[in-house]
Input
Amino acid sequence: MSNTNPARGMRDFLPVDVRKREYVINIIKEVYESYGFEPLETPAVENIETLMGKYGEEGNRLIFKILKRGEHEKTGAADLALRYDLTVPLARVAANYKNDLPKFFKRYQIQPVWRADRPARGRFREFYQCDVDAIGSGSMLVEAELCAAASEILQKLGFDDFIIRINHREILRGMLNAVGIADEKQADALVAIDKLDKIGKDGVLKEFAGRETSEQAGIKLLDLFARLAAIGNINTISTLSEFIGEDEEARAGLDDLKQILEFTNLENIKIDASLARGLSYYTGAIFEINVPDLAGSLGGGGRYDALIGMFGKEEIPACGFSLGLERIVFVMDERNMFPADLQNSSADVLVTIWNKETIAESVQLANDLRSQGLRVLLYPEADKLGKQFKYADSINVPFVCILGETELTTNKVTLKNMETGEQETIERGQASEKIKK
Amino acid sequence: MSNTNPARGMRDFLPVDVRKREYVINIIKEVYESYGFEPLETPAVENIETLMGKYGEEGNRLIFKILKRGEHEKTGAADLALRYDLTVPLARVAANYKNDLPKFFKRYQIQPVWRADRPARGRFREFYQCDVDAIGSGSMLVEAELCAAASEILQKLGFDDFIIRINHREILRGMLNAVGIADEKQADALVAIDKLDKIGKDGVLKEFAGRETSEQAGIKLLDLFARLAAIGNINTISTLSEFIGEDEEARAGLDDLKQILEFTNLENIKIDASLARGLSYYTGAIFEINVPDLAGSLGGGGRYDALIGMFGKEEIPACGFSLGLERIVFVMDERNMFPADLQNSSADVLVTIWNKETIAESVQLANDLRSQGLRVLLYPEADKLGKQFKYADSINVPFVCILGETELTTNKVTLKNMETGEQETIERGQASEKIKK
Output
C-alpha cells in the first residue's frame, strides 16, 4: 500500500468540485466570447529558455523544471519546464504565428499553471488561470474592455461587491522619482509597495530600509497613499498630477487612466496609486479585482508592450487580464453562491436488474430512456433489489425504474420516486415523461 | 529573439483547433453523462512513486520527471513526474477517497497526459485522453456499457465504419500456454503479438525468436489468428474453446466475452484473439476501436482488477475505456467531418470607431448588442474607416456596424453585410435583429 494523496500543493477534484469549476469556466467563456475573444491552448510544458528570465527573480525560482531523458537524465540537467503563467506562452505564440493571426488578436485561455510556491490555505502549486488578452493595439479601449468583461463575468457569477483597482507603471515610476528613489532601486521599491496589504505600513518601511532605499521616501509615499485612500478618482488624478510634476511619461500614464475611466461605465473602478503588481513584464496600466472577504485578489493584469518583442522581431503592444479560478470558486463556496442543482445526482434514474437472465432487457430499457434525453444509471450486476435501492439512495438519484418479474411479462415498469417513496406501475413508454416531470 | 516554437512533440492550438477539440469533447461528455458517468480531474503532476512501476518497462522510460527544487535541485534527483495516463491517477483516487465515493463509481476524465516518446506523425508528447471507468463491479455489464458508450460517441461524431475488437488477457494466457510458452516468457510474447499490425507476421516471429520464446509457438499462434480472421464471433468462440482446452481461467475469459456480446446490441464488435494491448495492468477483457484509414486505434481499454489494490488496502474491480482526442480529431479533419460553422469568425459583428471623441458611444453600442446575445468585436482604436473594413474582412466577420458622423447625430447605425456588400442605415434598436437573421 502506498501514499495515495495527491502531490503536495496539488488537488484532486471529485465530481461536485469539477461541476462547480465548470460552472464558473462556462460563464467566463460565454462573456469573453461575447467580446469577440477566441480560445487558445498551449502546451503545459515549454522549453526552459522560453520561461526563464521573464518573471523576475522570484518567478525563476518557482518554475518546475523537467529532467532531460534517456542517457542525459543522469546529468541532472533540465531542458523543459512547466508553464508558470499563460502570458509568456501567449507572447511566444504571438511571435511564432504572427502571419497567421489577425492584426488584432483577442484570445482567452483557461488552463492550469504550476508554481513551486510554499503551499498554504488557498495557495496551490497547480491552479487554473482564466486569461484574456488583446494583442496589437496600444489603445486604452483595450484596457477598458478587459475591465468591463471581467466585471461582467463577476456580476454574472453573482458578485456585487468587487472593486477594480487600477494604476500605471509609469505613474509608479513617476512617484518613485518624485520621492528621490534612483532607477536601479525602483524594482525593489515596487516589490515592497506590492506587499502593503500583507505586511502593513511598518512592514513596507522596514523593506525600504532593508533594501537601501531611503525610509524617508517610503514615508512620503505612504503618506500620499493615505491621502488618496478616501478621495474619488477625479481628485486622485489631480493629486497625483501635482505629486509627479513635469515627468512626461508619468503624465501620459495619468492620461491613460483618465481614458480607461472614460471608456467604461463601471462604477466600481478606482485608481489606487499603491497598486504595484509583482510581475516584471508590465509596462503600462495595471489592474486588480478585489472583494472584501478575500486577502488576495480575484484577478489582475495589465499592459506588457515589450514582452512579445522578447520573442519576435518587433515589439507588439499587448494587454491582458487573468482571473483566478480557485479563488473565485473559494469565495463562491464560502458565500454559498453556487446553484443548488450542481450538488444533485449525476443521473436522473437508476434502472434495476432482476436476475442474470434479464440483464439484456434492462440494458434495452436504459438505452430507450437515454435516447429520450435522460441520464440513466444501470445497476451493474444482478443483485438483491434491496441492495439496488440502497445504492440508489446513497447517490441521491431521484427515481428508480424497476424491471421485475411481473413488469417483464407485461412490458411495464414500476417507477419509484425516491424522495416521496411512492411507486406506480406504468407503460414503459411513459417512464421518461414521468421522470422529466 | 529566441526560439518561438512549442517544445518538441508539443503543440499550440489556435482558435479553430480549439473549437474542433471542444466540439469532440462536448459530445464525449454528453454521451458519458447520459450513462451516468461523473467528471473527475486530477493534477498533472504526481509523486514519482505513484507512477513508477505501473506501466511496464517501456512506460517507466517514457515518464517525464520533475527535478527537486531549491537546494535539492543540484542533486539532479526527481521527486515528481507528469502523469502518463489517467488510469493510475484514478486508481490512486479510488483508494484515497474510498469512503467518499459511491460503491460503484463511474467517472469520466478528459485531460492531457505526457509521454517522452519519439515524436512522429500523429504521435505527440502531450495528448489528451478521454477516459471513462467504472469501479466496484466485476460484472461484464460494465464492459458492455463502456463499449456501447464509446460506440455511441463515435456515431454521434459521424463515424460509421469503426470496429470494436475485444479479447481477454486470460484467453491470451490460455493460448500462450497451449502453444507451450512458459509463464515468465508470456509478457514478452504479448509485447510481440501487440506489434502484429505494425511489424507483420515475419516481424512477430523474429521477436519471438529474439526473446527466446519458441518460433514454433509463434507459428502456431499466427496460424490460429489467420484462421480466426475470416469467421464470425460464434465460430471464433468455438475455435478458441478448442484451442485453449481445459484451462479454467481461459474458459472463464471466453464466458466473459460471450456475456459482453450478449449485453450489447452492437453489430460492429468482433473478438480478435490477436489483440494484446501494451499496458501491463490489464487483467481481463481488453478492447480497442479502429477505423480502416488509421494505423493506430481511436481508443482502447480493458479490465484492471488488481491496480487499485496496489494503492489501497483491498482489491477493487475496475474497467475502463480511453478515447484518443488527437486521433479522433485527426481522422475527422482528414475526412472533413467537422461542421462548417466551426470555421466561422469568432464574432457576429464588428462595431467601428468614428474618431477619438466618439469612442464611448461605440462602446455603448457594442454593449447594447452584446446584451442582446451577439458576439461583438469593437475595433480597438480610432482609425480610417477603410482600415476597419479591411480588418473586418481579414477575420471574416459577417457584419460591420458603422457609427459615423451622421449616424451619431441621428441615433442610427449603418449595417454592412460583408458577404453581399449591401449596407443600410437603420434605427439602432433594429441592428441586432438584422444581424441575427
